[in-house]
Design goal:
The structure holds 2 protein chains of 2 kinds.
Chain A (H helix, E strand, L loop, with lengths): L11 H29 L6 H26 L7 H19 L2 H24 L5 H20 L13 H4 L1 E2 L2 E2 H19 L1 H11 L1 H6 L4 H27 L10 H11 L12 H20 L4 H25 L2
Antiparallel strand pairs in A: 1-2
Helix pairs in contact in A: 1-12, 1-13, 2-7, 2-10, 2-11, 2-12, 3-4, 3-5, 3-10, 4-5, 4-10, 7-8, 8-10, 11-12, 12-13
Chain B lengths: L9 E10 L2 E11 L15 H9 L6 E6 L2 E2 L6 H6 L2 E4 L11 H5 L6 E2 L3 E2 L1 H14 L16 H14 L4 E4 L22 E6 L5 H9 L9 E3 L2 E3 L4 H6 L2 E4 L3 H5 L6 H6 L7 E2 L2 E2 L1 H14 L15 H14 L4 E5 L7 H16 L4 E5 L3 H7 L2 E6 L2 E6 L6 H14 L4
The chains are: A mainly alpha, B alpha/beta.
Chain lengths: 326, 415
């Protein structure tokens, strides 16, 4: 017989289980990973290597932050890797021509916005599916980057360009500070601002959000603009580390970014689920895994196998989580 | 109708089906004799479709027995097993696959084969042609994709498909066929303090009218005045600025964000009230929710997901959401659909209480005549996109309403 209203409320043990599977699962996984690699390799457990892991996760973490906005709003952005390439070759070109690194970075970020806005308008206002639009612009942006550079890397950038990659502040690399700054801002936007609630609402149920007076087209465009901007910022970090602008840069970055978000508990199967802090852990998880495997001399072929298994596990967890919440 | 002593062809014994908070079927029993045509009538939400779905295997029953020709239909009945027992169902909302041909649809999963594996298309089309000919529909080309057919032809194919099985019992879910034409020159006034009802059959386009007023769908023509002034319309956000709100008839699909918490849903429309410069004051959200929880008796925790609530409590959250939006005009579309009796009464009180406030008024769209009588001051009856009758306060009764709805609805109805 049905059912007082409270009968379907969750029990405490269910909630605890959900929390473990959800938020804390990936943290536990990360700690476990550190313990295993630290046990197996003295080289892994040095402070120098830990900062290395943080630096290595920088670009992916920043791109994945933008990806998280898109996925929470119910979409996906396959064009971020190509946005990295296009925005950084344009930025590098400006740096060479003007000698002004700051201007180059600003132009680079601006083109990230443009790439994102183009995706967003096609998806939100023309109504094309995100997967198809960003699959197309993945080729489009990369193609433009190749055409502009004739396939050549833009090298010999002004020395100031490397400040970001080499700089340190309070004992931590500048890239790490930048990454943390991005995550704090993204956290505030998603968790504390009304716009964040609108993004979740749009991803959770587009029609209900629209009938609640939310400008869902605007929200959808916005998340792609954010994704494009942060992809370009990831490109700026990469450009500084490589001290060049490369049209081949960012290949398959979209996959690492999606993987970081998914490992962190953002759901690819249902919008409106997930959060930015999980993505940061997810990005750290990926670079810890790859770093540890490299230190243990595991071949790069096996690294890919491990990555695949990790992402599969994350997706399985996502499904399991959904069943729990039913 | 043959009245013999023989066993009925179809026996339904004490069948029950429960959904959280609702008894969809409560101990239903009925017999159908061979050769009999039986009509099942009832209001929206009366449980007709649920019963038919139990028979056809689309949903599982929670109790009771079903016998066909004396053979018991298993509880975990699926569409495939039901077909084995000779039950075929024809859905009004078509169940055809639009990209397959007419013939492929009619014989889906039972295509004639060569060597047991390869589809014998020649035979398939010949059989399909024969099947359509029996229905005097041999003009339909069996090679065409279903999406290339007009709606009536698609319905013929649907029927042919049902009859292609060797079936004993055919269920036809005949609902009103909507004809695509929209609202025709509807004009009405809504006064302060008033609860105005909209009655009519399904397909009378009451919801379509409401959605246009609210801007959920495009207003094709016409004007909306609030307090004597024409207002811009075109989008829900605009309507909300004009202080017009719309409680959707589909709370799960359109009314609520099921994956978000009760308190988040409650303030979703007017987040300006709980934020400063876009920065949310979560304490205030909790406080607002607790106020509504008390005043409209919501059973649920502020941080629980809406999906974990019963239908009645979900609907109360949806109503709280619109009460918080601060609208002057609220349109309640089927406000008590699928809700238990106690919650229904509470929702009537809420609607009344809302309209009693200074400068506020409510519109109630309902297919439940008793509901319109209970809660409305005045009722407009619609039929096929037109307002056909206005029933004044001193004239409202179930009898009067039902007559108007059926008569006016029937006059222009062809289906």
């Amino acid at each position: 017989m049905p059912s007082t209203a409270l009968s379907s409320q969750k029990t405490t043990s269910q909630i605890v289980k959900e929390q473990i599977v959800g938020k804390f699962g990936v943290i536990i996984g990360l700690i476990f990973l550190f313990a295993v690699f630290g046990f197996l390799s003295p080289a892994f457990r040095t402070w120098g290597n830990v900062t290395n892991i943080l630096i290595q996760s920088g670009t992916n973490a920043v791109i994945a932050a933008g990806m998280t906005f898109v996925i929470i709003a119910g979409g996906t952005d396959l064009s971020v890797g190509s946005t990295v390439a296009l925005s950084s070759v344009i930025g590098a070109d400006i740096m060479i021509k003007t000698g002004n690194v700051g201007l180059g970075i600003i132009v680079s970020l601006f083109f990230g916005l443009v790439c994102g806005a183009f995706n967003g308008v096609l998806i939100a206002y023309i109504g094309l599916p995100p997967f198809i639009v960003t699959l197309s612009t993945m080729w489009l942006y990369r193609g433009i980057a190749y055409v502009l550079t004739a396939g050549q890397a833009i090298v010999n950038l002004p020395e100031a360009n490397m400040k970001l990659a080499l700089g340190r502040f309070l004992g931590l690399p500048a890239i790490v500070w930048l990454m943390l700054f991005v995550y704090v801002i993204c956290y505030i936007v998603l968790a504390k601002l009304t716009i964040g609630r609108k993004i979740y609402a749009t991803g959770d149920n587009n029609e209900s959000a629209r009938l609640s007076g939310i400008n869902v087209k605007g929200i959808k465009t916005l998340v792609f603009v954010i994704s494009g901007f942060l992809a370009a910022l990831g490109g700026v970090i990469l450009m500084s580390r490589l001290n060049s602008g490369q049209p081949v840069a960012g290949q398959s970055f979209e996959m690492s970014a999606i993987a970081a978000a998914v490992i962190g508990g953002t759901s690819m199967t249902k919008g409106g689920v997930g959060g930015i802090s999980g993505t940061l852990i997810g990005a750290l998880f990926i670079s810890t895994l790859l770093n540890g495997l490299v230190i243990l001399n595991v071949s790069s072929f096996w690294q890919q196998v491990f990555m695949g298994v990790v992402v599969l596990c994350a997706v399985a967890l996502d499904i399991y989580r959904k069943q729990l919440s039913k | 109708m043959s009245k013999q002593i023989s066993k009925p062809l179809l026996e339904i014994r004490n069948v029950s089906k429960y959904y959280p908070g609702v008894k969809a079927l409560d101990d239903v029993s009925l017999d159908i004799e061979a050769g009999e045509v039986m009509a099942l009538l009832g209001e929206n939400g009366a449980g007709k479709s649920t019963l038919m779905k139990v028979l056809s295997g689309a949903i599982a029953r929670d109790g009771g027995d079903v016998y066909i020709d004396g053979k018991s239909l298993p509880v975990n009945n699926t569409p495939l097993t039901a077909r084995g027992y000779g039950v075929a169902i024809i859905y009004q909302e078509l169940s055809l696959l639009s990209q397959l041909s007419v013939a492929e649809n009619i014989y889906l999963t039972q295509e004639p084969t060569v060597a047991g594996k390869f589809i014998d298309y020649k035979k398939l089309h010949a059989q399909a042609k024969g099947q359509l000919a029996k229905l005097e529909a041999s003009h339909i080309d069996t090679h065409l994709k279903v999406e290339e057919l007009a709606l009536p032809e698609q319905q013929m194919v649907e029927i042919a498909k049902a009859l292609a099985v060797d079936c004993r019992v055919i269920i036809m879910d005949v609902r009103d066929i909507t004809d695509g034409k929209q609202i025709k020159g509807a004009s009405f006034k809504l006064y302060s303090h008033e609860v105005l009802g909209f009655g009519g059959l399904i397909g009378s386009k009451r919801t379509e009218l409401a959605r246009m007023l609210f801007g959920a769908d495009k207003l094709q023509d016409g004007k909306i005045y609030v307090s004597g002034k024409p207002v811009a319309s075109g989008a829900p956000a605009q309507a909300i600025r004009n202080k017009i709100g719309y409680l959707s008839e589909n709370r799960k699909e359109e009314g609520l964000n099921l994956g978000m918490s009760l308190k988040e849903n409650t303030v979703l429309i007017d987040m300006g009230a709980v934020s400063k410069m876009g920065y949310i004051n979560f304490g205030k959200i909790s406080q607002i929710f607790e106020d509504y929880k008390k005043s409209i008796n919501i059973k649920g925790f502020a941080d629980a997901m809406v999906s974990s609530l019963s239908g009645g409590n979900q609907q109360k959250v949806a109503i709280a959401k619109w009460l918080h939006a601060g609208c002057d005009v609220l349109i309640f579309d089927e406000p008590t659909r699928g809700i238990d009796v106690a919650a229904k009464a509470e929702i009537y009180t809420l609607i009344r209480r809302f309209a009693d406030q200074e400068g506020k008024a409510a519109i109630v769209i309902s297919s439940d005549v008793a509901e319109l009588v209970d809660v409305c001051d005045r009722v407009l009856v619609m039929s096929r996109g037109e307002i056909v009758e206005e029933i004044q306060p001193d004239d409202i009764s179930q009898d009067r309403l039902l007559k108007s709805i059926v008569r006016k609805g029937g006059q222009v109805k062809h289906a």
